[in-house]
Amino acid sequence: MKRFLLKGLLAAFVLVGTAEAAARWALPALFGRGLQDLEDFYQPEERIAARGPITHLAVGTSQVGAAVDPDTLQALLRAAAPEGTPIRVVNAAKGYSTQMQHYLGVRNLIARYPASMEGVVVFLEAPEGVADYQTPEDHWTHEKWPSLLGPLLRTSDLPRFYLQSSNTLSDKVRVTAAHFLHAGRYLRHVRNRIEGAVNGWLTPPRPERAEVDLTTRAGIRTDAAGVAAAREQAVREADLRRAAALAAGDALDWDRSVAAQTVRLVRAHGGEVVFFMTPQSPVMQSRWGEEMRVQRRTFEAWTRANGIPVLQPQPFEYGAEDFPDNLHLRKSRSGEYTARLAEAYLAWERSRGGGRFQ
Amino acid sequence: MLFNSLDFVLFFPAVVALFFALPHRARVWFLLGASYVFYGAWDARYLLLLALSTVVDYTAGLAMARHETRRRRRPWLLLSLTVNLGLLGVFKYSGMFATTANALFGWLSLPYEMGALDVLLPVGISFYTFQTLAYSIDVYRGKQEAERHLGYFALYVSYFPQLVAGPIERSEHLLPQLRERKAFDYDRVASGLRIMMGGFLMKLVIADRVAPFTHEVFQEPGVYHGWAVILTNYFFVARFYCDFAGYSLIAIGAAKVMGHTLMNNFDRPFFSTSISEFWRRFHISLMTWFRDYLWVPLNGGGRVSKRRGLFNLFIVFVVSGLWHGAAWTFVVWGALHGAAVVVGNLTRRRRNKAWKRLEDWEAAVHDRFGTRAREVASVRAAGVPALRLPLLVPKVRHAVGIFVTVHAYALFGLFFIARSMGDVPVLVRSWFEFDRSNLGALILKVGPYPLLISVLALASLIAIEIFQGRHNLDEWIAARPWPVRWAIYVGGLLVILLFGAYGGQEFIYFQF
The CATH number of the domain where A210 resides is what? Predict the structure, then answer.
């Protein structure tokens, strides 16, 4: 048995080592920076923070990625700020991300680049005026992309992740593999790349079609299959949100939530958190029921008690046609929405004395 | 817990490591606990049914052992039959019964309606109930001694590698193995892991790769036509075989790692030359179960006429169809196979005669060009090897047999695939609608990539099965030098990781 174990360990070491070496050195060369930015969550943001201050950080799901145009927001805020005031807006939203992942991402940014993150304003999404109620005892990962958590964890976070989160054991193992091994993160992308290459070789080139009016921020897909998948996911997301609200009931202790942890973290570093309402497609809205209204009431009470604003970017009228995949705001309207968001944010800043915008 | 899940990848090595680390006396309880954890991972409530079947048959076995005569044992056998078949009846067939009764009431204009029980079909119930029934019947017949150790008996019922989808093991084969002390054996463990890898390849790279085609075409019959349906029909055959045979290989390999030998459940069935032969090579554990516990009793130990024997064979196939699913489509599917076996049996002599005539004719043709034959003989006499033209008719017969069997199985499979009897004519009609063939649309919808992987993997499987006709693949790999062996292992692992489909598709036979 000893011989078997030794052989097995040696084989595993050689195989895993080779795969890891390929993932760290060969794959980035093959697939470029885009793959790393997609999978190594918050790496792009850390590169930005390494170069200079981030003053405004939007975080959340891909719906935030679609709705908030960081360039537009940055331009508007710079125009409103006194000349020479550093303003840097970053949109760290990502599809299939969770609040816990964003909390860890912001934590890492603050810990590694404290000067760059001093006084940061973090924009947290609050669809229909209420944030998702998630606690550290919930899932730390989205079912579709568990490995996204891997790069965000410190090794010292692992015991808490195993003991506290309600992720399944196989999810936890998957995340641990993604934490330590780049091969664990990139395998699905290698598979997708092979599949894409073979499909491209086998399928005749199709005539040019009009592009879907969607941004590619936050990993949003604009290909036909991706749009179809997003349409299916919209229904699922709405149901997941409703199920979570049902499970939470009306005894919501928002002080225990991940959102509250993020507020405390950012405020401790001299920053501020603002919630903002994101536009929701009719598919997402149709799932709203009484349990969501209970959640909204308790959320409003908590934000008022803690002096946290919930921005309502208005006026901004929209309909079903503004969500090409039933989930994400179309690209051509994100500028307008971002402008309304900027106005709402600046109004709040001025109401409390102006801050950077005096 | 699915075999094709990360949970099992973590569960299995841990179980094996602890199994060999524990003293022999503790292993039975450990494996029993592990098996219950494995089964309970689906739904812990299922464990109650498993435990019920276990306790009832354990008790019935011990009670039967106390009596010498079958007459005194009979009530206990009836108890076992009632409980096990009752479980199947309630959890698997109550819906079918209610639907059929309501249809009958409607046809007779009777003002009754039977409600169907809203119960979830426990995974593997058809397998473990048959396994425990086999035990009870064998004890009743005096063929098997009653197992007195509850732990070993419970493990025999719930042994996790074969609990949910077989092979359906006989007590005389598995129980003694569970009692034996098993030492770690490197070669046996390596062999078991190789067999498991083969199973994962069949399941993940073939069965799950063709699954999107079968879902797309058969979830709504009538949307696809012509070649799209034909191709997918054969893909369903491939999926069904690779899913089930793959599971069986994983089960056999997992058991072998721990030192237990499970029966071979598939013997290259698609190289069969008749439906009869096919069912001697496909799901062997189930068909031998039906042979020993249904057909033999129906035949009264061989005391019935040939016609009656064939009728009983037909009944066995009808019942086996019903075992596969609680719907009339499965009954018809079983009946079709039964009819094919009976017809094959009745026409065998005539067919053999016809082929013999052809073979004789071919031999005569060879002789007619007799100089050649005589030349061959004289050249051979001189000790020079001579080229001899092979006789083709036996090979043609073999090929025709395989061709007819595979296609018959595929066509009968339309009843297996159909969600209801109403779907069957739609499916059959769509087979022949070549003018509306939309194979291209199907490929574009599902993607050419799964099609390419499926076709390549299937071609590889056929080549491997041809090879296995003459060699034992596992032994052949074991005999290679270590660089070749490890290249095969790494290659197999890479194929699984890069080309396997990971949607957590359940094994098809979990619905039975």
Answer: 3.40.50.1110
